[in-house]
Design goal:
3 domains, SH3 type barrels, 297 residues, 4-stranded antiparallel β-sheet, alpha+beta, 12 strands, 5-stranded antiparallel β-sheet, Arc Repressor Mutant, subunit A, 10 helices, CBASS_pafABC_assoc_protein, Alpha-Beta Plaits
Length: 297
């Protein structure tokens, strides 16, 4: 059996058991309903399933156990790392695209410009080997173009875009560059000394990609309408989000976050579905922005 088949089978088992506990036969029955799984011959013996469970624990750090009283398998511990989860999810999307090919509007994708992902392999190589890179960069705000020479540190995803976090060799400041704005990328053979920069710590209290602008993290409380609140509860705005209370009138959430420009824009995007309760200065800023928007009409 090929590696591709094994990965597909692991992915299928994880997806099924995340829905509910299942017996060996129930897993096989569910797999048999998937034409792609049948084409890939993913139906297996119970002995193979046992080996799959060991492999899944090793590869994805997802521990699957069985309940002897019901003879059903269930996910006991799920500590799958983000990169592993994203890899598995993308694998599932690729399979879905293959299944939907030739079936009209089975899958509907958003229209959007390219993400600059063609640069990722080269940038990762430069980051891992501490190599200078040079490129032309087109700014978001005014469309101006400039030549850059930087020390690449990491790649970060934010708001469906990928960014290069790097130290500009010109002024030795840490800056963010959207990959879709990078042109004529060149990787130098010249090495630099590793940059001391803890990216996870630096961005921990940030909302998106804006950082290093001086704002300190503060306690924020937002009140959403029940309809919007249920959505926010299922898809948190930030890792610090905590549900304070909810009833038929509102959902209140607390955050510990830097009130940067992109976070303020996120609040404004919810219009009359959200209200800032704390802090007062953020409440005033959002109020001024809403009044300025209203004055345009």
């Amino acid at each position: 059996m090929s590696v591709r088949q094994s990965l597909k089978r692991y992915t299928k088992i994880i997806s099924l058991l995340r829905r509910r506990p299942m017996s060996y036969q129930e897993i096989q029955d569910e797999i048999s309903l998937d034409p792609d799984a049948i084409a890939e011959k993913l139906l297996t013996s119970q002995r193979t399933l046992q080996r799959d469970i060991i492999d899944i624990a090793s590869i994805y750090e997802i521990e699957i156990d069985s309940d002897k009283s019901t003879n059903k398998y269930y996910i006991k511990e799920d500590v799958e790392e983000i990169h592993s989860r994203r890899l598995r999810e993308n694998f599932e999307i690729v399979n879905a695209i293959k299944m939907a090919k030739g079936f009209g509007n089975t899958l509907i994708f958003e229209e959007r410009r390219h993400l600059g992902t063609e640069h990722m392999a080269g940038l990762i190589h430069a980051i891992q080997n501490n190599l200078f890179i040079e490129f032309n960069y087109i700014k978001f705000w005014d469309g101006s173009e400039s030549s850059r020479k930087v020390k690449p540190i990491a790649l970060k995803e934010a708001r469906n875009r990928w960014y290069l976090i790097a130290m500009d060799d010109k002024d030795e400041r840490i800056k963010n560059f959207s990959l879709d704005r990078i042109q004529d990328l060149s990787i130098s053979s010249n090495k630099f000394k590793p940059v001391s920069y803890n990216i996870e710590q630096e961005f921990r209290d940030s909302f998106g990609i804006i950082n290093g602008t001086g704002e300190k993290p503060v306690d924020v409380i937002l009140s959403f309408t029940p309809e919007q609140g249920r959505y926010i509860n299922s898809l948190p705005l930030h890792h610090s989000q905590e549900l304070i209370s909810n009833d038929e009138n509102e959902f209140q959430f607390s955050y510990y976050i830097r009130p940067t420009y992109d976070f303020k824009m996120e609040i404004l995007s919810y219009g009359d579905q959200v209200k800032v309760l704390e802090p007062e200065n953020l409440q005033e800023t959002i109020s001024k922005n809403l009044k300025a928007a209203l004055n345009l009409y």
